[in-house]
Amino acid sequence: MNPVTDQSASAATGQPVAGPAWDLSGEYPAIGSAEFAADLAAVKGAISSLEAAGRSLAVHVENAAELDPIADAGTVAELARTMDRVDETSATLRNLSVYVNCVLSTNGSDAEAAATRGYLSSLRAALGAAEAPLALVLKLCPEPFFAAFCSLPGMPRFRFALAQERKARARALPLPAERAIATMSADGLHAWGGLYDAITGTLRCRALGPDGAESTVGLAQAASLLKRPERRVRESAWRGINAALSEHRHSLAAILNSISGWRGAEGGLRSHTEPGHYLDESLRQNRLSRATLEAMMGVIRESRELGRRALRAQAGLYGVERLGPWDILAPAPADDGAAPSGIPFERGLETVRRAYASVHPSMGDFVGRMAASRRVEGRVEGGKRPGAYCTEFPKSRSQFVYTTYQGALSELSTLAHELGHAYHCEAMRDIPLAESEYPMALAETASTFAETVLGEMLASEASDDAERLELAWADAQDAATFLVNIPARFEFESRFYERRPSGPVGPDELRSVMRDAWAEWYGDALSEYDEWYWASKLHFHKTVVSFYNYPYSFGYLFSLGVYARRQELGDGFHDAYVALLRDTGRMEVEELAARHLGVDLTQPDFWRASVAIVEKKVERFEDLARRAAE
Ligand SMILES: [Zn+2]
C-alpha cells in the first residue's frame, strides 16, 4: 500500500486530516493591539514628514537633468535621507497590510480587518504621492548624479531597482502630468477593473450541481464546478457562465476596450522621445528582453503539438474523442467511486518535507521549522477564503503559508508549491528588501521547482498505476496549460492590442479574435473553442499589469531548466540553487540565467531543453493512459 494515500492509517492513528492554525501572534497580537497602533502611528507620522520632503524635492524635478553631484551635494544627501525614510515606511506599511490580509483570509467577515485594509490602502496611495518627486528626480537625473547618490552609505541597495526605473526615463512626463495620471487612474483605469469585479461578483449562473439538480449560483461557485469530476456538471457550468457573461457582453467589452485604450493613450503621451510598444511595460516589469520572449514563444509554438497530445490522452481517459473547453481544468477521472484522498495533514507535510530533504537536508529542515514554528495554516473552516498563498512580513522576514487543507493528493503539491515561495524568501532573508523583490517571471521558480521535486518523488514511490496516472494527469494538465492555453491568451491579447488603436473592438469581434487564437493553439484537440474567454478570465481585466499570461509559461519552463541542473550538478546543486534564488531580486533575468545556469535565454536551446522534459512527462502520461485503456 502506498504510504501517502493509505487512508486506513488515519483511522488507525486518529490523526485529523485538516491542518492546524497558524500562529501570527509573533507579528502582532491583534489589529487593535498597542503594537499594531504604534506601527500605524509611525507610518502616519512618516507620511506627513515625507509629504513635506516631497514638496521640497519637487522643485528639483523640473531641472533634474541638470543636477550636478558636486554643486548639488546637498540635494544628493536630502534624496538619500528621504529614500531611507520611504523604504522604512513602506516596509512598516506592508507589514501592517500583510497582517490584516492574513486575518481576513482566515475570517472573511472580520469587519475591523476589512475597514483597516481600506484605511491602509489609502495610506499607500498617500505614500505613493509623497514619494513621487523623489522617484522622478532619481529617474531623470544624469548618470554622475545618480552614481553619487548610489555611493552614499546605505544607498547601494537601491541601485539595481532604480537603474531599472531609469531605463524607462525617456517615457517620463513632467511632474504635473505624472500626478494627473496617478490621480485620475483611481477613477479611470483602475475603476474599469473595479467594474469588472462588480459585474462578475454579482453574476448569477444556471448550472447543474454535483447532485444533478440545476440551480442558480455565483460565478466563483460556477467556476469551481469546472473542476468537478462529473463531465456533465462541468459542461453545464461552462455554458451557464458564458450565458451569464453574454448578457453583459457590451459592458465587458467596454471594460476591456477602456483598459487597453487608457494604456494606449498613456503610452502615446509617453512616446514623446522614442516610439513605444504595447509589450514594453510588461517586459520591463518582468525584467525580460523582447529577444527572450520571442525565443521562448518560438519554441512553445513549435512544441504546441505536445500540449495537444496531452489533451488527446486526457480525452481518451474520459472516453471521449475530444475534450470540450469545459474539460481543461478537469481532475483525473475517478475510478469507480473509490474515495481517494484523506491524507492527514501531518503525513502530507512529512511527505513534502522528505521531498525537500531529497534535494538537500537543509531544505527538509526548513519545512520542519515552518511547521514547528506554526507558520503553516491548514484549517478547514467556514469563514476562510479560498486559495493558497505564501506571504512574508517585511519586519521579521518570516514567511507564512496559507492553505485550506482537505487531504487530497493535489493539496500536497499546493503545500510544496507555497513552501517553495517561502524557501525563496528564506534564501534572501539577509538581503535588503530593496534587492529582494523579484519579477513575476521569476516568482514561480522555487514553487514550481518544489512541485516538480515532489511529483517526481511520488511517481517513483507510487505502488500502482492508478496513483501514477493521477500524478501524471497533473503533468499533462500543466503541459496543456503552459504550452497551449497560456500562449492562446498571449495571442489573443497581442492581436487585441494591435487592433485596438483603430477603434473600439465590439463583443462579436472579441469573440472572433479569441476563437482564432484558440484555433491557432488548440487546433483539433478540442471539440469547440471558448469564445467568451476574454470575458471570463480575470487576468485580461487586471489594471495593474498587462499581459498577465506569458510569465506563467516562462516560470514553468524556467523552473524545469533549473530542475534539469539538479541531475547535472548532483551534490553541488543546492548551493548553486540558493545562489540563483538570492540574485532574483537584483539581476535582469538574462543575466541571472547566464550567471547561474550558464545559458542564453535569447536562444532557443534552453527552451528546447525544458520542452524535452515536458515531452518525457507527456509520454509517460500517454503510456499510462494506454495501459489504463487495456
Ligand atoms: Zn505560486
Can you give a write-up of this model?
The chain has 26 helices and five strands. The chain is mostly helical. Among the domains are: about 10-20 and about 340-440, no CATH class; about 35-175, Butyryl-CoA Dehydrogenase, subunit A, domain 3 (Up-down Bundle), CATH 1.20.140.
Structural class based on helices, strands and sheet pairing: mainly alpha
CATH homologous superfamily grouping of the domain at 34-173 = Oligopeptidase f, N-terminal domain
Rounded to the nearest angstrom, the distance between the terminal CA atoms is: 23 Å
Assigned CATH architecture of the domain at 34-173: Up-down Bundle
From the spread of the alpha carbons, the general shape counts as globular
Summarize the structure in short:
Among the domains are: 115 residues, no CATH class; 140 residues, Up-down Bundle (Butyryl-CoA Dehydrogenase, subunit A, domain 3).
